[in-house]
Each structure stands twice: as C-alpha cells, then as structure tokens.
Amino acid sequence: MPVHADLHVHTTVSDGSLAPEAVPAAARDAGLSVVAITDHDRFNPALSAPVTEHDGVTVIHGVELRVSAATGNLDLLGYGVRRTDALAAELDRLQENRVERARSMVACVEDRLDVDLPVSLEPGVGRPHIARAIADAHPDYDVQAAFDSLLGEDCPCYVARDVPTFDRGARLLRESCALVGLAHPLRYPDPAAALSRAASLDAVERYYPYGGDPSPDPVERAVAAHDLVPTGGSDAHGETLGAAGLDRDAYERVAERLP
C-alpha cells in the first residue's frame, strides 16, 4: 500500500536539511497527504497549532525527546503538541546542554585533527552538524567516518547528553501531546526491554526503514499486548520523505487521537 502519512521527519530546526516551510512541498512530491515534523528536543516555531494544513498537506506538530531508561537511552515521539510551560522549560534546558556538548566536541575534534570547524553553536545543534563540518574540513573523513572514529559512543570526542528519565519525559509529553509513542523500537540494543516500556505509552513506531529488514513480530506483539496505536515514519533528515509510514487506513487510528 502507498504511504499516506510519514510521521517522523526532521527539519533545520534540529538536524534535518529541509526548512520547515519546505516540508509540505516535499511531502507532495513523495505522494504524501500527511506529515509529522518531529524535531529533536524542540518545538517547531513554524507550526502554530497541533495540526495545520499547508498547501493541501496535513502537518502535525510533533517532537522527538530522548530519555534515559535502565537499559539505555530511548526516543519518544509526541504528536499534536500544545506548548506547556513545563515542557518548554525542559526543552530549553536540553538545548542549553546541546550547545555546551557541541562546544566540547568541536573543541576536541579541532584539537585532534588540527582543523577549524565552522559549526554554529546554537539551539538545535547536534552531532550530524559536527560530522558534516568534519567531512567538509578534512579529506580523510566523510560523515559516517566522523561518527565511526570521532563522534560515536566510546569514540574520543563523544560527549554524553543530559536527558530526562523515561518517566519524567513521558509525563511531560503526555501533558503536552495528544499521542505519545516509542520511536524505532528495533534500533535499540535490547528491543524487548525497549518495547516493555511502551506498555505505559499510547503508541509505538511500527513502520520504520530499518536496514536488514528485521522481523516486525516483536512490535506486533507489543501492539496487541498493550493496545498500542501503530505509527510509522521515515525518520527523514534529508529532503526525501515517505521511505516508511502509514497507509490511509492505518493513519485513521492516529487521526482519531489528534485535536
């Protein structure tokens, strides 16, 4: 079935390459009718309401929030965002931490490689920005090599982020969002442990462009066991949307929960 709704898209507000105002046209080019903008740890200032219409495309205001759990960090997706003071304060804190983290990583890379990295240290900055700057500045690195050798976990220039606990992050999102789910459950080192946390959420990302085509059976079992709403999206950071998502019928379960 064709993808009707891509519910996991990033823009230049975080680490994507599409400006928010360019998303509806990119969605139409991909044959989509619905798109959710889910930037990392930020409200998207271009979206004035939880759900809006732009040039015939339904645009859902979402957010992707990283949280910590006993078995490792997880990513939560909130859909139909309404700004609350508590979530706004937490996102501001996370952005301050992102800037300081990026500052430390940039300094480490510049010292090790003897290069200058023109990374803009402002809210939204993340490792992809630094990796792209490394690839532009040093002939021995492309973006993937920058992650593999310098910026990945256990690499010399990696700096951990300060993130909220699962319980705190989920609570803040529930207060602000119409639907809260677990992102890309089969990407984590322990998918079973990650899926067990979905029991306290509304949804789980069932459709996602995993490499290697892992079996969706564990996700399907979690959906059935915990009565979760299946969501799906491409996790797009570039300009092509719709690599994964929901067909029209599957999207209706999401639409029922949105304001």
Please name the fourth-level CATH homologous superfamily of the largest domain: Metal-dependent hydrolases
Radius of gyration computed on alpha carbons: 18 Å
Structurally, the number of domains stands at: 2
Strand tally? 8
Assign an overall shape.
Answer: globular
Which residues form runs of ≥5 with pLDDT under 50?
A: none
Q: Provide the helix percentage.
A: 25-40%
CATH class of the largest domain: Alpha Beta
| CATH topological fold name of the largest domain | TIM Barrel
Q: Tell me the major beta sheet.
A: 8 strands, mixed
SS field, number of helical segments: 8
Distance between the termini: 26 Å
CATH architecture of the largest domain: Alpha-Beta Barrel
Provide the β-strand percentage band.
15-25%
- The average pLDDT is 96
Structural class: alpha/beta
Order of helices and strands: EHEEEEHHHHEHEHEH
Short descriptors:
eight-stranded mixed β-sheet; TIM Barrel; alpha/beta; 36% helix; 259 residues; single chain
Overview of the structural elements:
- By secondary structure, the chain is of the alpha/beta class.
- Helix 7 (217-226) links the parallel strand 7 (203-207) and strand 8.
- The protein has two domains: 5-82 and 177-255, TIM Barrel (Alpha-Beta Barrel); 90-151, no CATH class.
- It is built from eight helices and eight strands.
- The mean pLDDT is 96.
Secondary structure: elements and pairs:
Blueprint: E1 5-9, H1 23-29, E2 34-40, E3 51-54, E4 57-69, E5 72-79, H2 85-113, H3 127-137, H4 143-151, H5 166-176, E6 179-182, H6 191-197, E7 203-207, H7 217-226, E8 229-232, H8 248-255
Parallel strand pairs: 1-2, 2-4, 6-7, 7-8
Antiparallel strand pairs: 3-4, 4-5, 5-6
